[in-house]
């Protein structure tokens, strides 16, 4: 058993070092006004959900006789299903995520981190277990886990131009969230989702892009270079590339959306020039829709 005093001191130390990210995530989680988390399915639990008419096969001990006494029918008192889920988050920490096309916009990495921590806040409040895939941080419950997640989200992998998710550490039939720009080789993403689907893991992919990456506002002589520096292309007529670039980006999104549908996942795109609130709500509802 860990020494409670030492554990508390470590937690307080983490909290002191991470106030901006935690504060932003807490503020974002509050803004969606979701209240208490509920999966709204019948099952074992303490919270009353609804009455339903009794069916053939329902035992006498299942009948709510007080409610049934007010009508000519028999009713069963159902309770809300409250078995906790394990939700694993993968947050792309590659060099590509460090891009921002304007000083007024956060980097893709900053937006991914605050969304990851905010969805962790909402899930934790609902009693779920949350962890980070690829970091050795398994899914756990409780406020201390949020501090662990915030600490782990500070890591980056600048040596890699683009990130690739992994599903090896995901428990069977758990839930998952992938946050990335998904601009690298799509093959590793396809392998990860196929492996996840084989294990009964379902979830949501959120592609995070800067508005510049959507609009391609370049013209004339331009040097394009990857954030990691491994890719470089110079052109005198950048405007001539716009149509082909936008077509390939649309094809990439369609490929990811098709892959998500085929594996029982959900896919959406978020732009860093927009509020994070809408995408957080989308993530939360996407996890509610996967069974």
List keywords for this structure.
291 residues; alpha/beta; Rossmann fold; 2 domains; 6-stranded mixed sheet; two-stranded antiparallel sheet; 10 strands; 38% helix; vWFA_dom_sf; DUF58
Description of the molecule:
The protein is an alpha/beta fold. It has two domains: 4-36 and 84-289, Rossmann fold (3-Layer(aba) Sandwich); 48-79, no CATH class. The protein contains nine helices and ten strands. It has helices at residues 4-17, 19-31, 65-68, 108-125, 143-152, 186-198, 211-215, 242-263, 277-289, and strands at 48-53, 75-79, 86-91, 129-132, 137-140, 175-180, 202-209, 222-225, 232-235, 266-271. The strands form three sheets. A six-stranded mixed β-sheet has the order 5-4-3-6-7-10. A hairpin with a 4-residue loop joins β4 and β5 (137-140). α2 crosses α4 (108-125), α4 runs antiparallel to α5 (143-152) and α6 packs parallel to α8. The longest helix is centred in the C-terminal third of the chain and has 22 residues, at 242-263. The chain is elongated. Residues 50-225 form the DUF58 domain. InterPro entries: DUF58 (IPR002881), vWFA_dom_sf (IPR036465). Pfam families: DUF58 (PF01882).
């Amino acid at each position: 058993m860990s020494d409670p005093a030492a554990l508390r001191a470590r937690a307080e130390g983490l909290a002191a070092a991470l106030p901006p990210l935690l504060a932003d995530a807490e503020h974002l989680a509050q803004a969606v006004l979701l209240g208490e988390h509920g999966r709204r399915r019948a099952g074992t639990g303490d919270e009353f959900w609804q009455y339903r008419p009794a069916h053939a096969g329902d035992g006498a001990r299942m009948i709510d006789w007080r409610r049934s006494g007010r009508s000519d029918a028999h009713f069963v008192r159902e309770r809300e299903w409250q078995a906790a889920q394990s939700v694993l988050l993968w947050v792309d920490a590659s060099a590509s995520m460090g891009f921002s096309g304007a000083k007024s916009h956060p980097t893709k990495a900053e937006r991914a981190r605050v969304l990851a921590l905010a969805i962790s806040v909402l899930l934790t409040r609902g009693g779920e277990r949350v962890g980070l895939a690829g970091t050795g941080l398994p899914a756990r419950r409780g406020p201390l886990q949020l501090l662990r997640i915030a600490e782990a989200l500070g890591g980056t992998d600048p040596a890699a131009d683009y990130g690739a998710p992994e599903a090896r550490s995901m428990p069977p039939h758990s839930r998952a969230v992938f946050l990335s720009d998904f601009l690298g080789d799509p093959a590793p993403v396809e392998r990860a989702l196929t492996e996840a689907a084989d294990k009964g893991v379902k979830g949501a992919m959120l592609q995070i892009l800067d508005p510049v990456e959507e609009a391609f506002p370049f013209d004339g002589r331009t040097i394009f270079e990857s954030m990691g520096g491994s890719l470089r292309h110079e052109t005198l007529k950048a405007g001539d590339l716009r149509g082909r670039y936008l077509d390939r980006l649309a094809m990439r999104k369609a490929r990811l959306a098709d892959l998500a549908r085929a594996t029982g996942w959900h896919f959406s795109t978020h732009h860093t020039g927009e509020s994070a609130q809408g995408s957080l709500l989308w993530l939360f509802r996407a996890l509610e829709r996967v069974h």
